[in-house]
Amino acid sequence: VQLQASGGGLVQTGDSLRLSCAASGRTFSGGTMGWFRQAPGREREFVAAIRWNGGIAYYADSVKGRFTISRDKAKNTVDLQMNSLQPEDTAIYYCVAGEPALSATRSPTSYRHWGQGTQVTVSS
Q1: I want to staple 56 with a disulfide (CB 3.0 to 4.6 A). Which of 13, 51, 84, 105 is the partner?
Q2: Using an 8 Å Cβ cutoff, are 33 and 50 in contact?
């Protein structure tokens, strides 16, 4: 599976951005897709994930209520709508795909496939 992320950019505090990730190579027929992010000098952290079948979504506490993850099974894409962006959201955002156990949904080691990353910068 190859993952191609797009939609990053430079915005101001309070603005919105929508990230999109397209999966190709083979049809992603199950498992989970999601997003992690990494800011300079910090560890990679979980942002959001969605179960491909059923559409159950998971969010980090820091983004809950501001970010929404969704998937389009026909297009094999997953989007991350980010509202009320804050400077602390500045990071490289990575699209991921894998088959994590329920208890491991938020662990980066649970995901076999990673996209190249897209930069999101929020200015104050």
Answers
A1: 51
A2: yes
